[in-house]
Design goal:
The protein has helices spanning 3-14, 29-32, 47-55, 134-140, and strands at residues 19-21, 26-28, 80-84, 93-100, 108-111, 124-126, 128-131. With 144 residues, the protein is of the alpha+beta class. The strands form 2 sheets. A 5-stranded antiparallel β-sheet has the order 6-5-4-3-7. A two-stranded antiparallel ribbon has the order 1-2.
Length: 144
């Protein structure tokens, strides 16, 4: 399915010339802003050109906002996760989930790589965390 087929109704509501896409949702340019829009113009293409190219491509799954799209309160102890403190959510250290505390920069706590809640010797703080198994993403995704 092409992006235009998937998003045609939403784009029709907003307007072809004024829609933006941040990797997760379609909204107005004002709501998303140029800095986070996937169609940010560069030396090679205007945002309109990038929109047209995107509309004609196969639709990709929306990116996951790990802090807001996952219901961390439902994720059980010892669930496999990937964690890091450097900002990239594409890589990480494999660990076992302990708890999510949504305040401050360090929000996730895990047990060690080969530990679980029954044999843990420490709990480690992390800034970024994502579920390691694709089936867990669907299981713990917030329902809108």
């Amino acid at each position: 399915m092409l992006s235009i087929e998937k998003y045609k109704d939403k784009i029709g509501e907003i307007g072809v010339g004024t829609f933006a896409f941040d990797g997760r949702k379609i909204a107005t340019c004002e709501e998303i802003g140029c800095a986070t829009c996937k169609f940010l113009p560069d030396d090679y293409a205007t945002c309109d050109t990038k929109k047209l190219e995107w509309l004609c491509r196969e639709c990709e799954e929306p990116e996951i906002d790990w802090d807001n799209d996952i219901d961390w309160s439902r994720v059980p102890l010892d669930t496999d996760v990937l964690v890091n403190n450097i900002g990239s959510r594409n890589i990480g250290t494999r660990s076992k989930f302990a708890i999510y505390i949504p305040m401050g920069a360090i929000q996730y706590r895990t047990f060690g790589t080969d530990e679980n809640h029954s044999n843990a010797t420490a709990i480690y703080p992390w800034r970024f965390c994502k579920l390691a198994n694709p089936e867990d993403i669907e299981k713990y995704r917030k329902r809108g």
